[in-house]
Backbone:
């Protein structure tokens, strides 16, 4: 068997193995079954709480023998049960122990054991399985390889409190993906586990609750089923509410709150329902208070962040509940100066959780501030908040960096904060640093934040420009991730808005027309839109238009033609026509349109389009072309009259849409003047 | 017929003790007065001394019960009765540790403790502003009727903003007595408030601190005072806003303040369910305090504790005479029992007798086993005899039981279990034996009927064919009362003139009631008569099965036996005499007087078990007497009067009560009965 084969390791350790350990293993091979049983019992007593002894026995090959005895039908019930108990005890040791056990194929053997008719043996097997499966080193998939296992486990749920506890615990640890959720759900996990929520045993109730929390997470199907489940005549949500009562153990309150949160996020419970507003939300806020363990506070804050993320009303309520915003500031005070001095153990504990606490707080701040301006102000007014975000952006932990940038992004949606605290704290500096060589998820958030920082009213725009951001953004537009492409082009668009000639040239130069065309044919519609937006921003004010059109006119006209001819949405075509209108506003650029009869026909077509938006944009374009005070306006007017535009304009001046008729009339006046 | 009437009217002239009254009451004369109080003015009785007094009390008790109003007079009982009841129930549930006689809970705003710009309405729950509201000098506040008792542990009230008025300058909070009411809560020392216009909290200062959101029309603001850690937090629409104030002083009143015209707020001191789940918050603190108690360190003296606990259990068992249990417990824990077995068993026997309602036998046994004990404790003896009287009424005391029950075997039908309720077991055999006595009727109701007849409708009963066969019980009664009258009147007449005039008042009253009897002998309108009338059709129309059921429910005075009733009356006289003797020897004793009155009052009702003083007849009432007698015996043996376990319990209870008085709010959640399962 696998664990016996690692010879070099075995020899090195063997030298340390005491004779007694070997004695225990030897007794397992005794021909007298009674002596074997006694041997196993003695072994059981020897290994309890003794990790060294456990390791020794594993190295000496006790596991395959125990498994053999366990599987042998000739072994008595006592012996088989004791074997399972010893194996369970061995599994309680270090992670290495678990690995060795798994390598010895303990899981199939134990799962096979569950088919026994003897409850006591089943319980021993389940207990061992539970210990193995809750270890992070055990591959979860092993539970699902044999399709008969899950239904059998479901059927065992009615056997005893112990089987209930162990099986639900296995489920809650082995349900990691939506596939797992589906498997369990399809085997009626909800119906089987729901009655356990009112079990007299706390452990069973707790594990059943945990099962529901993992089953409902981001799973609409499960969540929708859960709301309709009755436990002893009571809706499941009410059972969860009862479990959140303040005199219940914290673990239970928190897990019940998670269940309701997941059900709410999956759309099974409305956000304005009292079990969310008056129960789940306050419960989660409570979990963030200083009275609770650091783990609970992390869990509470993360769950709350998830709950309120999409709903501004919940964000408002949470922001006023129990001074939450101020309470979260405490998350940054670990390890505290006190813990460092007084107690090494506590310092260690604090250090271990410090990152988790910080990222949880950032996440919750991000959720809180994602919509409401007042809440954002409240957050930035919290003591040292901006400094904390700034230092969070450059922390070693990737989790903290991501959460910090999420928080920054959320706050960057505020015009006021962009103008004040963001500038005061030069948040762009760490942000720019973060953008170098960051993983994609950080990059997405960071670039998205950058988009906001590059808005024209942001005072950070200038210094960011000077730090060579254009190159970075252009490289983002070449990313495989659509989110990154859109953020890159979006940032460029914002940057180009009312920008200097120099900046525009730099953008065009850096991006390159080739890349620009690639973006114009991007499969992602929003990338296309932002690219058109960028073009529009680039082609504003007359000298810029002429300059850019003189160097890239041909390609741009090509791209415009391409889009106008393609199957595109109204919005895209509107943007494109607006670009044309901008081009028509240039001095020399006008000719690019006037000499292109095909293009003029297209404009004429869109002036009679069923969409008012497109009509308006096309009319705007013509209006620019025939504008009086410019050179050559007379010839353009004449040519367009020949092409029949006057008739079209005349018709449009009668349009029911006031904007459109106004615009057409203004254009008509150019002829009269 | 005329002869009896004459006796009715003339006899009372010589009556001057209560006992004669009792006699009359049994005969149903005064019941007329009691059951139709409107025909008698209370003032007519108020000067009639002792006897008048207890009748009056019975009437008042009855009256108040009919009204169902409790002790609090209401402005408009019709409308608010239901709400009031709701409020009482909710307050009792929320603040079980509060003794409202010592520290009443706030139930409304005080019409006295407010600024003149404040108007109150809707049972003093709605507050509106009626000043000019020009500036902060026009601010006005109102306090609740009472301060928040510390024994609440956690106190909560809510205020709904009915209208924010012109500017919504509303403050909700707390203030001590005497704080200026021409201000909003929070602006002055010992005043705390949360203001709607800016959402700031004001902690005894004119400048506020950012605290919560603003509030306006339609919002419900709650204020929770935690008297355990002396903090306060507010809620808005059921959401906690977090701690607003710390280090609060004691005895704060719920307070609201308004400042501009149109502002109206409604208070909820428990009249309605709260928006915020305060009970959930309380449950957290209860769990916290219980945890604190459970985890209270007892250090290294674990072994000692065990010995102490074992001794407590053992002494408790011995005290209550659980002889066998105590012996086996002592054996198992290897502890010693101080008292010897026979002594324990004797006490156990006496206790069983008391608990079974056989007080007479208990007295006898005590006198026999512990001679001199009751002589040294005349008060105890009196209490015992009082109880004996009550048990006679109940029909459980052996003196009446042996008269009522023919088979002596049933006397031993009470096993010694202290919790046994002997009442029903006692009344059933009586009914049946009584039934067979009367030849005309074959069902169990008969005794009651004949008794009623003999007591109320006696004049007509004599001519009735169905009257009792052997002898007229009432005439025996009369001769007896006659003789007693003469004996009683002698010592009485030696008393002061005041008493003579008292008795004259009684006579007057009797005349009156007699007049009723006389004037309409055929249709006497009193309760007892009615009672019979109701029973009668049942007798005739309903089948036997129902009747059996009825008789098992029906309980009768002295088990319905005439001789027993007479014995009871006789005993009552002796009891009265004993009381007088005690008064002479030891001076007046209010408790005794009350006890006697209560016991005699039982006779004023046709159904003593369902009357305002009927509680006395409950077998559970024997328990306190039983333990008093037990304690007296133990004391006489130089053993502790109370078991240490009970002392510890009493100590704990007293400590918790003391905590309430010294304003330690945690007493609310450290109640002793929470730990007694």
Residues:
């Amino acid at each position: 068997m696998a664990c016996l084969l690692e010879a070099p390791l075995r020899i090195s350790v063997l030298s340390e193995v005491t004779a007694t350990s070997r004695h225990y293993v030897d007794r397992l091979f005794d021909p007298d079954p009674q002596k074997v049983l006694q041997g196993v019992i003695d072994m059981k007593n020897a290994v309890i709480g003794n990790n060294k002894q456990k390791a020794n026995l594993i190295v000496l090959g006790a596991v395959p023998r125990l498994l053999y005895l366990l599987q042998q039908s000739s072994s008595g019930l006592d012996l088989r049960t004791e074997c399972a108990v010893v194996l369970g005890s061995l599994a309680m040791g270090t992670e290495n122990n678990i690995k060795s056990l798994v390598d010895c194929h303990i899981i199939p053997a134990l799962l096979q054991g569950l088919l026994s008719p003897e409850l006591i043996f089943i319980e021993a097997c389940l207990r061992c399985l539970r210990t193995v499966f809750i270890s992070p080193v055990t591959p979860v998939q092993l539970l699902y390889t044999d399709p008969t296992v899950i239904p059998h486990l479901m059927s065992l749920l009615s056997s005893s409190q112990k089987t209930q506890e162990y099986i639900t615990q296995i489920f809650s640890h082995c349900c990691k993906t939506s596939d797992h959720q589906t498997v369990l759900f399809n085997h009626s996990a909800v119906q089987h586990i729901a009655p356990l929520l009112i079990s007299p045993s706390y452990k069973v109730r707790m594990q059943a609750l945990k099962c529901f929390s993992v089953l409902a997470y981001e799973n609409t199907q499960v969540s929708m089923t859960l709301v309709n489940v009755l436990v002893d005549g009571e809706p499941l949500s009410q059972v969860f509410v009862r479990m959140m009562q303040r005199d219940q153990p914290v673990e239970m309150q928190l897990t019940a709150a998670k269940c309701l949160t997941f059900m709410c996020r999956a759309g099974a419970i409305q956000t304005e329902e009292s079990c969310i507003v008056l129960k789940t939300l306050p419960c989660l806020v409570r979990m963030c208070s200083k009275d609770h363990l650091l783990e609970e506070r992390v869990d509470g804050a993360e769950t709350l962040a998830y709950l309120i993320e999409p709903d501004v009303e919940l964000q408002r309520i949470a922001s006023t509940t129990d001074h939450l915003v101020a309470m979260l500031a405490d998350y940054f005070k670990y390890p505290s100066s006190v813990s460092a001095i007084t107690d090494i153990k506590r310092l260690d504990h604090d250090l271990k959780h410090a990152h988790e606490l910080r990222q949880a707080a950032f996440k919750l701040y991000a959720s809180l501030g994602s919509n409401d301006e007042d809440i954002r102000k409240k957050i930035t007014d919290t003591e040292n908040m901006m400094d904390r975000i700034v230092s969070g952006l450059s922390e070693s932990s990737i989790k903290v960096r991501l959460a910090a940038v999420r928080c920054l992004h959320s706050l960057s949606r505020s015009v006021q904060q962009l103008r004040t605290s963001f500038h005061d704290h030069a948040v762009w500096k760490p942000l720019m640093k973060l953008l170098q060589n960051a993983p994609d998820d950080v990059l997405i958030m960071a670039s998205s934040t950058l988009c906001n920082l590059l808005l024209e009213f942001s005072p950070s725009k200038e210094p960011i420009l000077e730090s060579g951001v254009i190159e970075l953004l252009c490289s983002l537009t070449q990313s495989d991730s659509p989110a990154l492409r859109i953020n890159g082009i979006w940032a460029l668009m914002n940057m180009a808005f009312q920008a200097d000639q120099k900046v525009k040239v730099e953008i065009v130069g850096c991006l390159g027309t080739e890349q620009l065309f690639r973006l114009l044919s991007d499969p992602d519609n929003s990338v296309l839109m932002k690219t058109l937006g960028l073009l529009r921003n680039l082609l504003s004010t007359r000298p810029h238009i002429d300059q850019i059109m003189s160097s890239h006119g041909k390609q741009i006209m090509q791209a415009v033609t391409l889009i106008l001819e393609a199957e595109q949405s109204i919005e895209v075509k509107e943007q494109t026509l607006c670009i044309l209108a901008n081009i028509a506003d240039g001095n020399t650029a006008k000719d690019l349109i006037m000499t292109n009869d095909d293009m003029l026909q297209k404009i004429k077509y869109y002036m009679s389009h069923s969409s008012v938006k497109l009509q308006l944009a096309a009319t705007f374009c013509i209006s620019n072309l025939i504008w009086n005070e410019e050179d050559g306006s007379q010839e353009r007017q004449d040519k367009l009259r020949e092409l029949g535009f006057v008739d079209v304009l005349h018709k449009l001046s009668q349009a029911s849409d006031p904007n459109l008729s106004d615009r057409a009339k203004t254009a008509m006046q150019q002829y009269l003047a | 017929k005329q002869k009896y009437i004459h006796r009715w009217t003339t006899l009372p002239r010589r009556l001057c003790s209560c006992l004669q009254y009792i006699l009359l009451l049994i005969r149903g004369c005064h019941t007329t007065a009691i059951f139709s109080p409107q025909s008698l003015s209370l003032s007519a009785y108020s000067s009639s001394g002792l006897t008048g007094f207890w009748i009056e009390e019975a009437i008042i008790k009855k009256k108040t019960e009919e009204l169902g109003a409790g002790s609090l007079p209401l402005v408009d009982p019709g409308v608010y009765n239901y709400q009031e009841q709701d409020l009482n129930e909710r307050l009792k549930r929320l603040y079980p540790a509060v003794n409202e006689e010592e520290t009443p809970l706030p139930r409304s705003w005080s019409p006295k403790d407010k600024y003149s710009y404040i108007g109150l309405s809707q049972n003093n729950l709605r507050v509106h502003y009626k000043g000019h509201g020009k500036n902060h000098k026009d601010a006005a506040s109102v306090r609740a009727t009472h301060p928040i008792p510390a024994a609440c542990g956690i106190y909560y009230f809510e205020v709904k903003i009915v209208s924010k008025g012109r500017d919504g300058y509303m403050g909700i909070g707390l203030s001590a007595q005497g704080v200026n009411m021409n201000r909003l809560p929070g602006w002055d020392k010992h005043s705390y408030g949360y203001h709607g216009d800016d959402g700031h909290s004001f902690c005894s200062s004119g400048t506020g601190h950012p605290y919560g959101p603003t509030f306006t029309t339609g919002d419900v603001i709650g204020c929770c005072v935690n008297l355990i850690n002396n903090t306060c937090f507010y809620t808005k629409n059921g959401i906690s806003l977090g701690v607003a104030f710390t280090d609060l002083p004691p005895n704060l009143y719920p307070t609201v303040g308004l400042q501009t015209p149109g502002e109206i707020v409604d208070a909820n001191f428990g009249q309605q369910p709260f928006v915020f789940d305060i009970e959930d918050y309380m449950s957290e603190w209860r769990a916290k305090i219980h945890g604190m108690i459970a985890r209270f360190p007892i250090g290294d003296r674990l072994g000692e504790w065990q010995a102490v606990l074992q001794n407590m259990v053992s002494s408790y068992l011995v005290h209550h005479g659980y002889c066998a249990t105590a012996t086996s417990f002592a054996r198992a824990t290897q502890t010693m029992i101080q008292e010897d077995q026979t002594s324990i068993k004797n006490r156990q026997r006496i206790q069983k007798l008391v608990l079974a309602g056989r007080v007479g036998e208990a007295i006898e046994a005590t006198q026999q086993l512990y001679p001199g004990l009751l002589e040294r404790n005349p008060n105890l003896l009196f209490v015992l005899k009082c109880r004996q009287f009550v048990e006679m009424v109940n029909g459980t005391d052996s003196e009446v039981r042996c008269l009522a029950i023919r088979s002596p075997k049933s006397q031993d039908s009470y096993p010694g279990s202290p919790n046994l309720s002997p009442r029903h077991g006692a009344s059933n055999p009586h009914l049946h034996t009584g039934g067979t006595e009367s030849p005309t009727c074959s069902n169990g109701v008969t005794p009651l009927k004949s008794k009623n007849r003999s007591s109320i409708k006696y004049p007509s009963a004599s001519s009735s064919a169905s009257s009792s066969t052997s002898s007229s019980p009432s005439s025996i009664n009369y001769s007896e009362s006659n003789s007693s009258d003469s004996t009683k009147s002698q010592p009485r007449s030696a008393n002061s003139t005041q008493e003579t005039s008292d008795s004259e008042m009684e006579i007057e009253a009797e005349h009156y009631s007699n007049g009723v009897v006389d004037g309409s002998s055929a249709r006497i309108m009193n309760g007892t008569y009615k009672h019979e009338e109701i029973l009668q059709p049942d007798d005739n129309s309903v089948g036997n099965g129902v009747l059996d059921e009825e008789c098992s429910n029906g309980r009768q005075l002295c088990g319905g036996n005439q001789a027993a009733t007479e014995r009871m009356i006789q005993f009552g006289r002796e009891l009265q005499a004993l009381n007088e003797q005690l008064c002479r020897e030891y001076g007046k004793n209010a408790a005794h007087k009350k006890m006697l009155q209560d016991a005699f009052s039982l006779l004023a009702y046709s159904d003593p078990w369902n009357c305002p003083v009927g509680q006395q007849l409950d077998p559970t009432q024997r328990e306190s007497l039983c333990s008093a007698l037990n304690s007296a015996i133990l004391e006489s043996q130089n053993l502790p009067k109370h078991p240490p376990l009970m002392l510890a319990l009493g100590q704990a209870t007293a400590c918790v009560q003391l905590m309430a008085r010294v304003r330690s709010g945690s007493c609310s959640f450290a109640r002793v009965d929470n730990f007694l399962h």
The two ends of chain B are 62 Å apart (CA to CA). Confidence is low (pLDDT under 50) at residues 1-75, 406-553 of chain B. The longest helix of chain B spans residues 562-586. Chain B touches chain A at residues 212-213, 233, 236, 238-243, 277, 280-281, 283-284, 286-287 (CB under 8 Å).
